[in-house]
Write a structure and sequence with these properties.
It is a single chain. By secondary structure, the chain is of the alpha/beta class. The protein has 2 helices and 6 strands.
């Protein structure tokens, strides 16, 4: 989800609610402690120099159980971040601590913002010798050799 998308969704909501991909809700007393821009310059294992730019939200749970972040307040934080930090319309990455700090992509399911699990991947598979995946075939789709010369009791084996 890009920053422009969350900005268009927030005014339509009464409450801001996040949930993990498995359906577990982030406690409703969460805080958005950071909105920022993360720029990652790196080189992949194939020697290609790359650059990623993401808008970063950090969610945090405190012991102030009466705290509820309203859509207007989050929109204000986003607008302030755009003005003060020059943040552009990039994909949003959310940091949230479950067992450890995790990084998640963000989607909206019509009710809640969903923290989507991210996976690592090799960006240069062709350059670092990773074999292409073998074609998977279901055994039930294989045709049996219909050679009439080799049947049980025919003596061919």
């Amino acid at each position: 989800m890009k920053l422009s998308e969350i900005k268009s969704i927030l005014p339509t909501l009464e409450n801001v609610e996040f949930q993990l991909e498995n359906g577990t809700l982030v406690p409703e007393h969460f805080h958005v402690t950071e909105v920022g821009m993360v720029i990652k310059n790196f080189i992949d294992c194939g020697g290609v120099i790359r650059k990623e730019e993401k808008v970063n939200f950090q969610l945090w749970n405190a012991d102030d159980y009466e705290h509820r972040l309203k859509p207007g307040k989050l929109l204000h934080i986003i607008t302030l971040s755009e003005e003060k930090l020059g943040i552009g319309d990039f994909e949003i990455e959310v940091e949230y601590q479950d067992n450890t700090i995790g990084k998640y992509d963000l989607e909206f399911n019509g009710n809640n913002f969903v923290l989507k699990n991210k996976l690592t991947a090799c960006l240069a598979e062709d350059a670092c010798g990773i074999p292409s995946q073998k074609q998977k075939v279901s055994l039930s789709e294989l045709t049996v050799n219909q050679n009439p010369g080799c049947t049980p009791g025919s003596g061919c084996c």
